[in-house]
């Protein structure tokens, strides 16, 4: 069975942009002027020798009259240009004449297209226009901005009214202040000539204040009416959603259906093709590459089908939204292109991580079970040790072939272990996230798995060794190298089996380790079976106790640390 997983969005978007630039871009090329007579050609389907449809003849007459009118306009402008006296008028008339001639040429093409019913494009020589991405982008954004403008029309109208009211309010206030000031100046008994001028200015400012007050009142009434008629935010949203689905719901439904048909159809075909191949064929590079291309085409073909539906329906708003969204994703993913390339190499099993090899992921070893659009990592020694993750999460990792007897985890459930921090306990649970230990007192200690591995656990369940140190006084130096080690070892071999199961004690050895500063130090090694691991701490205590009893039995002195003080002479 071939797994079908979604392709990385960034890789897909880059591929989409390449195909769109090659084939889909003409959708947004400069539109040719619409032909008002294109719909009339339906009436001109008569064969040679048959009578012409009366409606078609009327249309030709109408186009003829339009041509005659345009030719008369050109003749009039030409005559005006000849009679013009100044340079400015001549320039205006020349510009007008160029516009009329362009319109006349367009009308003549329409007349020929309608009358002759042939493709005139081979006879039209068009100048190559340089590509202007800003102009193309503005055409793409135009329907989107128009839709946004329609949605926010009421809010913008209210905002404009409020801004105009604020401006008129300031004018009204300042005009009233000017009127008050002029009244005050007239009360100061000015000269007759000054009074006349002040009264004229008073009349002027009173008129301005009155006009501002009237306009302010009218705009305030308009604003209040709009606010009263305005719907709540919920009602506006609901109304727009209802209108959106009424006008574009069918287009959206058809587009989603087209995408789903292509997407699932191509993946179903890919699954059927892979089923017909040999069982191990899906591991081959050719199969992986074919599967990758089919997945790419399923998404890319689905998007193109969706865009084709919107294009056929003339829904430039939805088409523009999709294209801008994809362009944005593509632009944002440019920086991650190297990562996407590495992801593709991993999918093809030619990257730095290979199937069947060993990888250290989050400081825990795993076997790479499978690599496709999702990777499966397995650790057989951990509970829940199988996890699936996007293949992009393995970018930057490296795998290697596993050793013949290389363990996948240092411990197993039920093992007794000892950590660097001195903790002795039994493994009760181990998973990719946590390891739980139960110590000798029954307490449960939980370690994050990577922290547990950093403690270098010693596995005691298959046998272990205890190392202890013991010292006697230098007065026994004569027998320190032979008799003392022999008697200590004999005492341990005789007493330890009484503290343990006979099968648990495997070997005991005692040797002089060093001549210390205060004592002759001995190294005691006791090898034990793994079943004795829970008693490790008790056995350490027992070793010290047995050796102390041996010292009492043989009159050996146990020294204490001696410090010699030397007094300095003046």
UniProtKB/TrEMBL annotation:
Coiled-coil region(s): 60-117, 158-215
Signal peptide interval: 1-24
Residue intervals passing through the bilayer: 249-269, 289-310, 316-337
Superkingdom per UniProt: Bacteria
The entry's keywords: Coiled coil, Membrane, Signal, Transmembrane, Transmembrane helix
Name listed for the protein in its UniProt record: Small-conductance mechanosensitive channel
